[in-house]
Fold this protein.
Amino acid sequence: MHPRDIRLRRRCNSALARLDPPRPFSVTALCDQLAEQRRRPIHLHPLPAHAAAAGTCGMWLATETADHIFFEQRTGRLHQEHIVLHELGHVLLDHYALGPDGDAAAGLLPDLDPQLVHRLLRRTNYTTPQEKEAETLAGLIRTRAEAAGRRLDGVLGDLQAAMGVRG
């Protein structure tokens, strides 16, 4: 494995170790948990159509008081959840905007006062180290949540299944 990939895995595993995904797992419950831990709300929003048309599928916008995660709404539920997990990856890894994304708020969210924006990261590709880290962490969060959901066996597992609760 390349040393760069080893560093990426270590950073993602370190961030994952600080998480205790809620059970049963849901992206909304994870957002609530992180908002409480970070003492700032996390708001989920559908991505504006013009931002999606510009090639953006997810975006994290941080203001002084809250985090806003935008996700593509014209895709399946699991893909929407993955986009949110990816953007949460940016939050958990404390990423900053690089290059022109820092000035993109005016074009993507024209009604937003640019002075309110502290950070803005949008995903249009997976080529930067930050995007690779966020994508890796999103996958690790989902894998851990699914593994935790499968741990209930026997009577507890039967009860969970009967109640329609999924991990």
Q: What stands out?
A: The longest strand covers residues 42-46. The radius of gyration is 17 Å.
